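User: Can you help me understand a structure? I only have the sequence.
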Amino acid sequence: MKLLVIDGNSIANRAYYGIRILSTKTGFHTNAIYGFLNILLKLESICEPDSVAVAFDVHEPTFRHKMYSEYKAGRHAMPEELCEQMPVLEKLLNLLGYKTVKCPGWEADDILGTFAENCRALGNECFIATGDRDSLQLAHGSVRVLLARTKNSQAVTDVYDEAAIEAEYGIKPPALLQVKALQGDASDNIPGVRGVGEKTALKLIQSFGSIDYIYEHIDEIDIKASLREKLKNDKEKAYLSLELGKIRTDVPIDSLISHYTKSIADPEAAANELQRLELFSMFDKFGIDKNAAVSAAKGNAAVPPERKITRLTCLDADFLLKKINESTVSYVLPEFLPAQNSIAALHFAFGDEIITFPGEGAEYKYLVKNYFENSVKKYSYNTKELYKLACKLGVQLKNVCGDLLLSAYLLRADNASYDIDKLCLEYGVQLPEYINSLGANEKAVSQAAALKELFEKTDNELKAAGQEKLLYEIELPLSKVLAKMEIVGFEADPVGIQNFKEKLTKRIDELTRSIYDGAGHEFNINSPQQLGRVLFEEMHLPPQGKSKRGYSTKAEDLEALAESYPIVAQVLEYRKLAKLRSTYCDGLLKVIEKDGRIHTSFNQVETRTGRISSLEPNLQNIPIRTELGREMRRFFRAADGCMLVDADYSQIELRVLANLSGDKNMIDAFNSGEDIHKTTASQVFGLPPEMITPMLRSRAKAVNFGIVYGIGPYSLAKDIGVSHKEAKEYIDGYLRHFSGVCEYMNKMIESAKETGWAKTQFNRRRFLPELKSKNHALKSFGERVARNMPIQGTAADIIKIAMVRVDKRLEAEHMNSRLILQVHDELMIEAPADEAERALEIVTQEMQNACTGAVPYVADGKIAKTWYDAH
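Assistant: Let's start by predicting it. Here is the structure, written out as tokens:
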């Protein structure tokens, strides 16, 4: 038989530090539990055990503490966020069918040793999973150690048997204990021999086999006199360390393998606990029925009866329309095929009867037109795809009253996904299974049957959170706008891009030859390791940093050398041009469609602040900081007979800050028409405006925007090239003058700590479990977000409102002008030449009137032929 025995504390510790902070809606941390379960599954896949045991430490002194009172003295206490997860992890493992083992007075290591010895004695295989190399002393006979470690920021598991240990250390596994007796262990406060490190200890044991032999022949063995003296002085400590470091094999536990086979005694309890912890991805991984989870999230008292759903494939549009019109409400799920960018079918839910209409043919178009334009209320998922379908077929989609995707996003913007299966688990909704006549599970049919109940749950939560206006007045109307923008696209110039690519290639080739000449030979410039060797070993340039992976060749480190060393400047230029060529030239050429336009996708549910993101391609990421990068914007142009109308908010986030904080000095500065950065510089540096130099204005600008993003003195000092002390003085001076801003920032932090979330002016929320962390770095991060999310999120909400209003105005005035792009605080319209001036009036008016406050929101616009010329 084969046993996997896991060092529970060690693996949980690795999981905790290896996984970003995760928490439930109530703020309970789950990153260690989530990481542990994933590691457990990986370990099982490696060794395919018959039985699994998880060993945990007991929080009380062991026999080693009695032997040596300083054992593990000085070790940092387990972080509170990890400590609270340990009993929950143990409970969950038991519910999932795993046996856990602990024994007062003994450590988990000794439990591992006892299982290992028992397996050896009975001829069974044993795999020990741990992150602690101490257990390598056990890896002999039929015992192997699965050592978890981190390599290149990735979790890896190395398998150690007797041969692997001999190959790495040159000694047999049990002799590793002898090494530890000499070198000691700082983490456990095992003393060892003073002045003997790992290399010396290993060499001694490789040469003499054991500390018994060393001390029995201490005056005869061939070692340095100074080492002999150290060994003699600390003989007692060496033998103490031998006892402390030895993993015992006689812990009084049940070590019979057959008693540790996995068995889930109560699937419902396991499902409820996974649901309570919001570990929805674990249901499938552990084979837990999703519908068994009934009580954790919403307090259901009993398992609801299993729903039986039926499905009818319908090809008669009039039959379906009649059925739809008999009700005032409809629930429809589009089955979207991303690869084809099309809808495969529409699934209409009538209680437990699902009617599927295939997404093609004249009858389908007839259905869509009549259904989309009727008065029935429509509830769906990802209505942007329905709006796109409406655009393609030239019909109007009316009476959209709900979008489950948008509702779920507003309620929990930090979720990784909003898959309907996951939402069913999150909101305690049964997902009925539908198996077709061929025996296949039709997921979309099941999901359609869950829509109605999911809407009931999410609508109640949106109402309780006060987010109904955010959904109905901003997000739902915006999905229609984004659909139209995706359909229209943005015309691109493939010839111009290709010519630019060739120009870049010529310069990249020149740089490559020059770099090779400087190095004296060819090498892979894109390899950090090879580049590091060339620069810092062969050419002897001063390294700016080094790690186990080699010399640092990060841009910020190379930039410090660029002025003094031409080859470094050439490498930096090479990198920038190579990225421009591959990411933007090659990338954009691939996505220009037959109509000559690029049709990006706008993601409404990705960012935590509410900003819209763009992908395939990401047009929001077109470089603008360098002249060469800005050149890419020349290749985005208006169609023949049209112009681009581009409007940008002026300093929207600072204006939002002024309005939200109510700071009188900032409000007065904006309303007097002053240069806000110059005014800030004058106040912070205590100088009259006429004495403010461009450099001082630039520093004040960095402080202004840094405050919005919660910047600290260290980061500000780095950004503007001043000392930490100066940067702190700038921030302190700023907050003294704009005391209302300081008061507002503190208020936002306290509010977020009290409620658990930060929110915008329009009640968009971002949950901040980091604020409860005892870890200083995590808590500081949470406080920064609590300060800046209301500002960034409110700015995002305002531009969304503007987009909806601009689109409505263009429609109301029967114009052919169309919104085609949104990038941060910028809106782009493509307008027929004779409509351009009117379109500019509309977009600037609606942007400026999207929200009112003590400080007005100002938008500046321009008409041009290309995106480049619009700036």
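Now, to help you interpret it: Residues 295-302 have pLDDT under 50 and may be disordered. Residues 144 and 161 are 5 Å apart (CA to CA). Let me know which part you'd like to focus on.
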